[in-house]
Structures are given as structure tokens and as C-alpha cells.
Amino acid sequence: MSSSSNKLEEVTIATQPIFTGKVISLQVDTVQLPNGKTSTREIVKHPGAVAVLAIKDGRMLLVDQYRQAMGRTELEIPAGKLEAGEDPLDAAKRELEEETGYRPRSIRRLHSFYTSPGFADEIIHLYVTEDLEEGQYAPDEDEFLHNIEVTLDEAWDLIANGRISDAKTIMAVQAWQLYHLTGKFGYDNE
Amino acid sequence: MSSSSNKLEEVTIATQPIFTGKVISLQVDTVQLPNGKTSTREIVKHPGAVAVLAIKDGRMLLVDQYRQAMGRTELEIPAGKLEAGEDPLDAAKRELEEETGYRPRSIRRLHSFYTSPGFADEIIHLYVTEDLEEGQYAPDEDEFLHNIEVTLDEAWDLIANGRISDAKTIMAVQAWQLYHLTGKFGYDNE
Predict the structure, then answer these.
(1) Distance CA B163, CA B72 (A)
(2) According to the UniProt record, what class of enzyme is this (chains A, B) (predicted)?
(3) Predicted-assembly ipTM surpassing the 0.90 threshold
């Protein structure tokens, strides 16, 4: 393995704001490429998000919700945007309890990842907990959810039939299976 | 497991185009919520993309490239946008050869996933191949890449230190480890 990053960098020459919305904003950056030419990069700015692989009595907690970008409902692990200045760990506990009614007694971060590095700066911080107690179900006012709990085999079937079809949830199912097989979630090398 | 999707659907009332760029476009949809109220959804439209877990002599092929959204370079599996009307399978073969110089003699789809269903319709079609021959290295004119090959253990180290930090690449590493452990990539139940 060898890796050198010289002569790959782009230099930002200008930033044109296009749109500022409730969730995202959009800007077009003009950049100088390594060969000296210029190009543009369309960049979506996002506050970041958290997601939680929550396992209760051998079943993972999933949330069914409508996704306008898909034009249909989808089953996902509990997740939500970071509020301004919010610590990701606090956000993970908050979103899990709001969306499922379960409060984690302990929880830890697996890792953080970019969802679409080609056009967006969104980072999702992925957490895992197997230690839950009853809490307060309190979805946001414009959030309409159904909660279900599935086994690992059922989760794979839901991936196969497309009811689970987003990156963070598939990644969580893979991590859960790696945990079954190795006793580790894969990326926690502690 | 039970799942019912009634009373979760949102109905699109209006669509306001905001921006049309080289890669993405942006629109704001006004929707009627299940409770009869209205809200808005900011939606990024994307042509879709392909990505390839390519394994050669026990090492996965990675591409180091600058990501303006991150402000740094990152190691990712070979990937790229679908061209207009292009079949994802053809795109996967094309992108792999252009970015690595290796042509797949055989290749198959693992699954397809949404990267950010909360605000974008981008779908990535993820392929896998272990059967490569020499082809023609030909990155796009504004693409500046370094190619490296890593073992599974090295890939996990790169996740741990953040040099691999995007969803599709972490998902590919997990799939590769599941293949080592079970003989299956996880989601191909054939």
C-alpha cells in the first residue's frame, strides 16, 4: 500500500451562494484544478446527522417513513439531523428516544462517514447500542413514523426486496452481521 | 415483523425549480402531510452513479482523489455518474476501466442504495468483480487520481484513520469481509 496526495488538490477561487433552505444550502465553487485550469463544483451544505443501530432482544429497531426524494416509504434505522451546536452523541440519544421511545443506557460511536462526497458535505455519525430502557416516544411535529423490529435474517430479506435501500441502514445491517460473526462491529478495533 | 405504510404518504402539491447544474439540480417541493398540513421538502436531483468493489490478487482497488465537499483527498472505490441513458452495468465497466486501467471479464451487481434519502434522489449501483484484465487507463479531463491497492486489514486501518470515510467504500469493505467470513457478500442470496 502506498498513497501520495500531492498534485490532487483543488484550490477554491470563488464561492457563489445559490440557495439557503430549512435543511440544506447550495453553493457553486469555482476551483483551480491541478493542471491550472478552472472548473466548477456544485456543493450541498448539510448540518450533519446521526443514526443508531439499536438492538433490543436480538432485533434491530427500524422506522418506516415517507421519503419525498424516493416518492415512497422506506425502512431505516433511527436517524436525524444535528441541531445547531449539538454534540453528535447527544443527538443520537435524542433521536433514538424521539423516534422509537427507547432510551439508551449506554451507546457508542462506530464511525462517521460522508454520504455523497461528490456533491455534499453531509456526515453521518453512526452509533450502536444494545442497552435500552423505556423512554418517551416524541417524533417531530411533521414526522410520521411506524416502528418495527426485525431479526438479522429479516433485515437481509428487507434489503433483498428493496424495503431497506439506504446506505446507513445497509451499513448497519452489515455491521450487525459482522458482530454476529466476529464479536466486533468491524470498525471498532478497541 | 410487521409493517404498514398507510397514513405515512405525503402528496406533492407544487414543485419549485431552484437550480440546474452540471451534476445536480435542486427543487423545493410543497407537500401535504398525513395530518393535512403542508410543509416543504428540499430535494436534490442526481443522475445516479455506479461504484465497483474490484479485487485483484487479494487487494481492493482504491482511487485517491480530491473532494471539494470535504476540502481534502479521500480514498474511495472506483465510481462515477451515470451518463444520459446509460445502463448501470455498462457504466460500472466503463468507470472501473477509466479510473484503474483494469477491465472486468465478469462483474455482477450486489445491490443499489440511496445515499441521502432525506434530501437527495441519488442512487448508487454497487458492483463486484474479482476477474480483471489489463485495459485502458483514461480518467476524465478534469479528474486527477492516484490508484492504490490494499488488503482487507489495510482497508480497515484506512477506515480507522479516516482516509476511507465515505459510505459506499465502507460498505464495500464490510461486504468484502462478509465474503471472507461467509463466502457470500451478504446481500447476494443467489
Answers:
(1) 10
(2) hydrolase
(3) yes
